[in-house]
Amino acid sequence: MSCAILRDIPRDVVLATLGQNLDRQLTLPANTVFVHAGQSHPGLYLIAHGTIELFAVDTDGREKVHDFAKAGGTLAEETLFSDRPLQYSARTVTAAALMHLPETLIEQWIASYPLFARHLMTLVAERIHYLQNDIFTFRTKRATARLVCYILCHFDKAPKTPDGSYSLLIEIPRNKLASRLGVTDSQLSRSLRELLDAGLIVAQRRGYFIPNVPALSRYVCPQGCDI
Is the dihedral of CA 192, 174, 34, 21 positive or negative? Predict the structure, then answer.
C-alpha cells in the first residue's frame, strides 16, 4: 500500500501487518457506507484506491458533503488523540480499496517509531488548519471563489508547474461537488461558466486545463491567497 503516513514504518512491519490482518483490508464497490457518524475511536483508514465522500445528515434527513478523500489519503485521523466521536460518515464514490488500522496498532507504532508519531501529529495539524481555512472560505466567499479555493487548496494542495499551468481531472459528480461547496447545482454551473468565459479554465475531454494558476488565484484573491 502506498500511503505517505506509512513511510516511517519499516517495510517488513507494514507487510506483516497487511498479511496478518486481511480482514482489515476493505475492497468496496461504489456507494458503500463503511464508517458512520458518531463512532468513537474508529481508528485510521488508509485509502489505496478510489474516491471517498465524507458526509453528514441533518435533522431533516438531508445529506451535506463535508469533503472528499482520494488514493494516498487518510480518514478519521482527527479522532486519534481525542474522545470526540466521528463527525461524519464515509461512503465510496467509486470502487475503493482501504486499510483499517485500529487505535491499538497506531499506539504501538507511535511508541516504537518516533518519526511516525511526528508525521502523524503533523497530519492531524494540517487537517485542522485545512478545516479552519475551509470555515473562513464558507463564511466570506461567494460561489466562484469557493470553487477556486477548493481547486487550488484541495487538488494536490498548491499546484506547482514551471509555466504556471495545471491539468485538473475532477472525478466527482457535479451535484456532490456543489454540496461540498455549499452551493446549488445552478450556482456551480454559473461559476464554471464564469471561469471558462474568463479563460481561466479550459474544458478538456476528461477535465479542465488551467493555463495560469497564479492568475486563477488572483481572480478571487487579488492580493494573493489569504488563507
Answer: negative
Name the 3-class secondary structure at 83.
Answer: coil
* Cα–Cα distance, 208 to 109 (Å, whole number): 41
**Between the CA of residue 159 and those of 22, 162, 205, what are the distances in Å?**
36, 10, 20
Q: Cα(first)–Cα(last) distance of the chain, in Å?
A: 32
Q: What's the length of the chain?
A: 227
Domain 4-125, classified CATH 1.10.10.10, yes or no:
no
Q: Flag whether the pTM goes above 0.85.
A: no
What does DSSP assign to residue 158? S
Q: How far is 219 from 210, CA to CA, in rounded Å?
A: 13
**Is it true that domain 141-220 has CATH number 1.10.10.10?**
yes
Model confidence pLDDT, tens digit, residues 110-160: 999 999 988 888 888 887 877 777 787 777 889 999 999 888 876 545 455
